Amino acid sequence: MDKSFTFIDDTRAILVRDLQALYDELESTPEQHLWLTIPGVLNSVGTLSHHICGNLRHFIGEKLGNDGYVRNRDDEFQNRQLSKDDLLAEVRATISAVQIALEGMNEQRLHDKMPDPPPQHEGRSVGFFLIQLCCHLSRHRGQLNYIRRVLSAENEKSA
Q1: pLDDT digit string (tens) for 26-70?
Q2: In angstroms, rounded to a whole number, what is the distance separating the alpha carbons of residues 104 and 8?
Q3: CATH homologous superfamily for the domain 13-158
């Protein structure tokens, strides 16, 4: 018998797929490139990875799953002391937090107001906010991919 997938199942699958792609991007990034930026781009691969994980662990793990995660958003943009292994572990923890929180959610919750959203999303539903989180992850993962490829190309030129 075919399983009928729900919006939550589909959202979880997209988030986990894209977080796994983030993990793969990090694995492909040389340690010495993690915190480098390129002209015209403010963030590094490390910063974007740390921010993506903090964002998802806060809004899905804590706000929807009540897992106790405490976010430090400033740290996501200022801490450049994390190693590649630290960031990879953070992505694995984020995948786990997303899976656990969304596996335990029922479809009715999608219609509830998102708890403690940023001001621009005040009053939006959980369902809307899950779509927003997928888009946020996708946007930043694309930026991260671009930065990684530019740095790799520059490294090849100088070699």
Answers
A1: 999 999 999 999 999 999 999 999 999 999 999 999 999 999 999
A2: 10
A3: dinb family like domain (1.20.120.450)
